[in-house]
């Protein structure tokens, strides 16, 4: 199901009793975070604050803050459905043979939804044009007491690669310095930073447009670990099964989602000195340290006549961003399995906050297979940040954390089965001695073979026979115990 815009999604949440509207006035400085944090930790509803102190705009938070709402946001019963669709689409063996070609036509027809549509006219996001922009009118949150100020936390930052002309959309927080400047939090390893470095060679001003409040599929697409040649708007169209409508920015040639609630336009002067940004209470549950980043100068703000400001908070999990991470886990698993067929399943535990822990089960076929998969994963895109990779056998579900812990605690010889690997780390990692660089750990908790040097007999798991399990299951039901 494709939503026309964010407000269409809000209506859907309300219809399913997954939204609470709050009319009492609330303060964007700390108070909204305290409320939203309590609701998030109790797996409560999305919140629409209709009376935010100091701003004329209502504020939406925690919109995708449960598995149910994340599925609803992407229009599926399960996030695995999207992964299966991607896997089916890419599996070219299904297109071989005349009959298979005809059978695959419905899947191929879906390609028509991938390509965005550029409107010849202004979009709904440009119903109101503010030539004298003032960010203080937006209900921007100060989330945590130690934050350096107010931060826009759910921005879709759109830039154009000056060499290829291809647009990029990413999610980078924006610290509001004053009414028309913010920080631009481009990490060292992010695509936005790479494009910024290209502009630095050219000099001058780098155009930037920021969309706030889109169909949730577009918002998710901005966070997805896509290859550089895949346009996020195209991926959003695939998720929506409907093309994304784009409109040209007022001040630049950047195309933005036409149905966004707000568009913030401006530039980054690549010759300007960097400015101190942060600290900020981050998704690790700790404050990320202050550092120097480019400055975003706002030249124009456009919005709908009655827009809704979207935001999120991050901190000690579970938080709303955890479910975006779980969506990535399920959606991209089939692609991972195509590269590494030995992989059975994978789990990014919420407590690992995206990059700090990955559990993977494999069909082990040869000595050292567990170590091979660790090094393979460390070589893929954002997986290079993963501080801990735990490998278990195919009969262990990575989602069953108790069983995984049992295998790790009992199946490893620390000298042989623990791997330390130096490499890149996420910019938010605070535990390493150096920024962006340090040690990752792999734990091979698979059953060890004699060919791996394990000369003693490996004991079998203690487990009841299937016949006895079946008998007890039947009697269990007879007593009405479920």
From TrEMBL:
<dbReference type="InterPro" id="IPR002830">
    <property type="entry name" value="UbiD"/>
</dbReference>
<dbReference type="GO" id="GO:0008694">
    <property type="term" value="F:4-hydroxy-3-polyprenylbenzoate decarboxylase activity"/>
</dbReference>
<comment type="similarity">
    <text>Belongs to the UbiD family.</text>
</comment>
<dbReference type="InterPro" id="IPR022390">
    <property type="entry name" value="HBDC"/>
</dbReference>
<feature type="domain" description="3-octaprenyl-4-hydroxybenzoate carboxy-lyase-like Rift-related">
    <location>
        <begin position="122"/>
        <end position="317"/>
    </location>
</feature>
<dbReference type="Pfam" id="PF20695">
    <property type="entry name" value="UbiD_N"/>
</dbReference>
<feature type="domain" description="3-octaprenyl-4-hydroxybenzoate carboxy-lyase-like N-terminal">
    <location>
        <begin position="10"/>
        <end position="84"/>
    </location>
</feature>
<feature type="domain" description="3-octaprenyl-4-hydroxybenzoate carboxy-lyase-like C-terminal">
    <location>
        <begin position="322"/>
        <end position="445"/>
    </location>
</feature>
<dbReference type="Pfam" id="PF20696">
    <property type="entry name" value="UbiD_C"/>
</dbReference>
<dbReference type="GO" id="GO:0006744">
    <property type="term" value="P:ubiquinone biosynthetic process"/>
</dbReference>
<dbReference type="InterPro" id="IPR049383">
    <property type="entry name" value="UbiD-like_N"/>
</dbReference>
<protein>
    <submittedName>
        <fullName>4-hydroxy-3-polyprenylbenzoate decarboxylase</fullName>
    </submittedName>
</protein>
<dbReference type="GO" id="GO:0005829">
    <property type="term" value="C:cytosol"/>
</dbReference>
<dbReference type="InterPro" id="IPR049381">
    <property type="entry name" value="UbiD-like_C"/>
</dbReference>
<dbReference type="InterPro" id="IPR048304">
    <property type="entry name" value="UbiD_Rift_dom"/>
</dbReference>
<dbReference type="Pfam" id="PF01977">
    <property type="entry name" value="UbiD"/>
</dbReference>
């Amino acid at each position: 199901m494709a939503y026309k815009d964010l407000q269409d999604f809000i209506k859907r949440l309300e219809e399913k009793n997954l939204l609470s509207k709050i009319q009492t006035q609330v303060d964007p400085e700390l108070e909204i975070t305290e409320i939203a944090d309590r609701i998030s930790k109790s797996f409560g509803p999305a919140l629409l604050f209709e009376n935010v102190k100091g701003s004329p705009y209502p504020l939406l938070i925690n919109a995708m803050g449960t598995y149910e709402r994340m599925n609803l946001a992407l229009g599926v019963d399960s996030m695995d459905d999207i992964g299966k669709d991607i896997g089916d689409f890419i599996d070219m063996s299904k297109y071989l043979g005349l009959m298979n070609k005809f059978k695959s036509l419905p899947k191929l027809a879906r390609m028509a939804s991938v390509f965005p549509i550029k409107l010849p006219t202004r979009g709904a996001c440009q119903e109101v044009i503010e030539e004298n922009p003032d960010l203080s009118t937006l209900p921007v949150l100060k989330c945590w007491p130690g934050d350096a100020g107010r931060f826009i936390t759910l921005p879709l930052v759109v830039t154009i690669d000056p060499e290829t002309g291809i647009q990029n959309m990413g999610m980078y927080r924006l610290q509001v310095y004053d009414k028309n400047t913010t920080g631009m939090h481009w990490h060292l390893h992010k695509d936005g930073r790479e494009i910024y470095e290209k502009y630095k060679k050219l000099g001058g001003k780098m155009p930037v447009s920021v969309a706030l409040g889109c169909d949730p599929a577009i918002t998710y697409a901005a966070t997805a670990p896509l290859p550089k040649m895949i346009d996020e708007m195209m991926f959003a169209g695939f998720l929506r099964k409907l093309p994304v409508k784009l409109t040209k920015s007022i001040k630049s040639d950047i195309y933005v989602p036409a149905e966004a609630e707000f568009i913030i336009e401006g530039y980054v002067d690549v010759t300007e000195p960097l400015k101190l940004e942060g600290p900020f209470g981050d998704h690790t549950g700790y404050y990320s340290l202050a550092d120097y980043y480019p400055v975003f100068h706002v030249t124009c703000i456009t919005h709908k006549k009655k827009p809704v400001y979207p935001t999120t908070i991050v901190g000690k999990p579970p938080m709303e961003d955890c479910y975006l991470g779980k969506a990535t886990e399920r959606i991209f698993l089939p692609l991972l399995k195509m590269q590494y067929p030995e992989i059975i399943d994978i789990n990014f535990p919420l407590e690992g906050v995206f990059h700090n822990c990955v559990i993977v089960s494999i069909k082990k076929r040869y000595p050292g297979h567990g170590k091979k998969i660790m090094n393979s994963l460390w070589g893929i895109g954002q997986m290079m940040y993963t501080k801990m990779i735990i490998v278990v056998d195919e009969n262990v579900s990575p989602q069953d954390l108790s069983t995984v812990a049992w295998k790790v605690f009992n199946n490893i010889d620390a000298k042989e089965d623990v791997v330390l690997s130096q490499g890149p780390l996420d910019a938010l990692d605070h535990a390493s001695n150096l920024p962006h660089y340090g040690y990752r750990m792999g734990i091979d908790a698979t059953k060890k073979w004699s060919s791996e040097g394990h000369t003693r007999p490996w004991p079998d798991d203690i487990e009841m026979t299937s016949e006895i399990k079946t008998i007890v299951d039947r009697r269990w039901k007879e007593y009405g115990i479920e």
